[in-house]
Amino acid sequence: MARRSRRREKPPFKQLPWRQVVNRYSPIEPLDEEQIEQIHDASMKVIEELGMVFLDEDACESLRKAGADTDKDTQLVRMDRDMVLEHVAKAPAEFTLYARNPAHNLRIGGNVINFSAVGSPPNCSDMDHGRRPGNFEDFRNLVRLVQSLNIVHMIGGHPVEPIDLPVETRHLDSVRVFVTDCDKVFSAYALGRERISDAIDMACIVRGKTRDKIKSEPSFHTVINTNSPLKLDGPMLRGLKEAAEWGQCIVITPFTLAGAMSPVTLAGALTQQNAEALMAIAYTQIVAPGTPTIYGGFTSNVDMKTGAPAFGTPEYTRAELIGGQLARRYKLPYRSSNVNASNCVDSQATYESMMSIWGAVMGGCHMMKHAVGWLEGGLCASFEKIIVDAEMLQTMAEFLEPISVDEDSIGIDAMRDVGPGGHFFGTAHTLDRYETAFYEPMLSDWRNFETWEETGSVTAERRANKIFKAVLAEYQPPPMEATVREELDAFVEQRRREITTIAAA
Amino acid sequence: MARRSRRREKPPFKQLPWRQVVNRYSPIEPLDEEQIEQIHDASMKVIEELGMVFLDEDACESLRKAGADTDKDTQLVRMDRDMVLEHVAKAPAEFTLYARNPAHNLRIGGNVINFSAVGSPPNCSDMDHGRRPGNFEDFRNLVRLVQSLNIVHMIGGHPVEPIDLPVETRHLDSVRVFVTDCDKVFSAYALGRERISDAIDMACIVRGKTRDKIKSEPSFHTVINTNSPLKLDGPMLRGLKEAAEWGQCIVITPFTLAGAMSPVTLAGALTQQNAEALMAIAYTQIVAPGTPTIYGGFTSNVDMKTGAPAFGTPEYTRAELIGGQLARRYKLPYRSSNVNASNCVDSQATYESMMSIWGAVMGGCHMMKHAVGWLEGGLCASFEKIIVDAEMLQTMAEFLEPISVDEDSIGIDAMRDVGPGGHFFGTAHTLDRYETAFYEPMLSDWRNFETWEETGSVTAERRANKIFKAVLAEYQPPPMEATVREELDAFVEQRRREITTIAAA
Question: Within the 339-358 window of chain B, which residues sit less than 8 Å (CB to CB) from chain A?
């Protein structure tokens, strides 16, 4: 009986079924071919004449062997344009990312867009408890939202930094939550070889595969940010190498804020973005030709009065679109983001996000990072923003669906039956289709003002608060075999002991 | 001294200068050519076989003379497709709308987008006084905001209905405010011949032109909504005729809510929109060939649970884009709208508006109605939403600006000077450009969370409240010669007497 009544209950929230989102539209291209070639040529000059510092002895050595001009003292690496382009060309245009649940495998490339959750904010917030530093409980709840929301395709890094966990072993607990509370494609941080190596082992355990097998089945992605301008840190380089050697997906993303870490002009910032991205991508292909690699764009501008980064600006949206043009120039999958600089979930957070989402989608991106939950220029993960973003992404996904045009759908006979001044509500043409004709929102409230007021004048933000709690209340962990779980836990505890022992020694 | 200190004060709000916004991008086209031809062909069948009721004897007579099949009893009018297309082809693809201030003349057509203010809500609201029925004071304040905000190109109808004014003479007071408190292109309601005729006379007075001159210089626009499905009301038809005979701009907009006033499918609703629009446009050209006419699209869907209209949905955005394809099919300027169904200024209002704005812009629209201030599916004008919308439109206008790519803007020398790991803030390349490099927002707050919290955690909506009041406090009426003002007032009072006398008789 309990089961039956439960089944009868209305679901606490409605959402679209899981699917990969396909973008059938041609991208919007702000620059013409000649302008793109100008930026290409300028970035080749940057690579040849200025170069980038690779803060890792071993990376410099590999690059030197591959023909780059490397300076032993400064670790400045310059490459010939033919060399860069030859290696960049080895990166695949399309590939698959493998999830623990094969139904959640993701195609990267072509005209598919994947939405990944917010990554790396130090704080999180919700309307009930306000803004607070990240902790492991919030971390888990955010991962569970990612699992429950069908429109979110993948983990995008720590959805909030669990600062109550020790730094040295934090990755073990984090990845374990990624692969137990969630069965979607996950993410690992390239902070040295070890963390990536542990993530590979954990992916092997939960996917029941050997390291050799996983080499051709990338099972997570890692983001490599250049330390713009023109610098790549040692730990990132070592993590990159480990991931590339084991065939995992690498997202190269220069952080080129115009006016701060790159020239104040869009043309200059994008030239630098392109130079940095291509040098790092060339390195991934030197480490392991064919490594699945994504060209990331993150160029935005700063507020020239305060130096604060701005997002979802006209400049940001244009940079997203041009970033897509550049990625296509090199036949590389493209990563962009859903970002904003607002301090709370309000109109600003929403319009800046919408400018970002449209720029990413019409820029032809294949991976939209921070697609749900990002606030404050990335310093905070908002539980309510996750729901607002999920609604916007669902709207976009439905917008991108194909449209049927045929005699049946046009329905001239229905118009004839209804006649001038009539009403279509009760017609067979309507009744046959009304249940699936339109997108049914998760968050939007279309009732009239009077009804809305009588029921408490609940704003979208407050509705989002209710919805995320309903989603968490209904959360069910994806199934995992007991033996797999035991093996995973044993691995985590063994590695924890090893790391703690080394740290204590 | 007072003057000097005043000059030193910071402006209460920042905005972009007045300009016509040019859209350099190719439109997004959801349907292929064949599908557009299917919708065209189906709408021709609707025109030929089903027809539309023209609830006006005189209109039926003109249409009959032009070759239409008209039924005297039902006033149902059917036209041959050749006849419709022949007349539609007489409407100009581009024209100019003349404002009282020539600097505010507007090009309609080509790749120019014009933003017009919210029209016709019965209610208005702000955070200080809540939601209330429209009145003349709020009406004036809304018109003054339209005048003060450079991004708003034109009046879009009564920004709120001033229900404290008598219905019969309301248009005299309304148009007088349009042409005195504002010097942008205005709007008049086609509710019978008389109101349009009065608007023509008032346009003549303030522009210092004769009726004959104004015939070739359209000085206002009027929206003709079909009473969907397939019906056009008498007062609208008589207003349309007066406006067409005197060369004023006519915006034909069927109100085809899918599932209610049109088929539940997008293909069906758009077929009906197209049929209704083309029949009405053909009639304008039969009345006066060459009348500046705009193809309006307003197809959206209803909430199938409540029958409430929904806006800014995936269906709405697709209808906007396809509406643009159809308008281009007939070489007609295109009208779309910035609409949402939220009951307050919140995330929902903002994301639904953003879906509408992107659909309108990428649909290649030339006139975006309700571009600022619309809330509640059109039942309320919000003072705060005007500012949120103005910010979104400014962002879009800046996004559409061309991008300079040359050696100078790319700035490789700046990158060389800064070097790896350096900072661009202090470089000459930055200092030379920083003041104009980026869009400076009107509403967005990019300060960090701590500063924002210390200064009161003011949301975008509350900042919008402050901004609209600052704009109104700084409002200056555009200059008007005393003799013109006298002539205008004399006309208004004479017409008021005439109308009141007739009504009393």
Answer: 341-355, 358
Tokens of B168: 């019969």
pLDDT at A11: 60
Cα–Cα distance for residue pair A148/B14, rounded to 1 Å:
43
The average pLDDT across A312-335 equals 98
3-class DSSP state for residue B344? coil
pLDDT-above-70 percentage for chain A: 98
Say if the Cβ atoms of B355 and A399 lie within 8 Å.
yes
pLDDT value of position A502: 82
Give the Cα separation of B296 and A18 in Å (integer): 36
Tokens linked to B359: 């659909």
To the nearest 5 percent, what fractions of chain B are helix, strand and coil? Answer: 50, 15, 35
A120: left (phi over 0), alpha (psi -120 to 50) or beta: left
Residue labelled with tokens 């004060």: B9
Q: What is the Cα Rg of chain A in Å?
A: 24
Residues of B within 8 A of A351 (CB-CB) are 350, 353-354, 388, 391-392, 395
The H-or-E segment that residue B336 falls in is: strand B334-337
Q: Does A466 touch chain B (CB under 8 A)?
A: no
Q: What is the pLDDT of residues A177-232, one digit of tens each?
A: 999 999 999 999 999 999 999 999 999 999 999 999 999 999 999 999 999 999 99
Report residue A239: phi and psi, to 5°.
Answer: -65, -40
Supply the DSSP symbol for B313: S
Residue A120 above 80 pLDDT?
A: yes
Tokens read off for B357? 């704005």
Q: SS3 sequence, B30-47?
A: CCCHHHHHHHHHHHHHHH
Please classify residue B379 by burial: count the beta carbons closer than 10 Å to its beta carbon, then call 0-12 exposed, 13-18 middle and 19+ buried: middle
Question: What is the per-residue pLDDT across B52-81, written as a single tens digit (0 to 9) for each?
Answer: 999 999 999 999 999 999 999 999 999 999
What is the crossing angle of helices A266-287 and A81-88, to 10°? 70
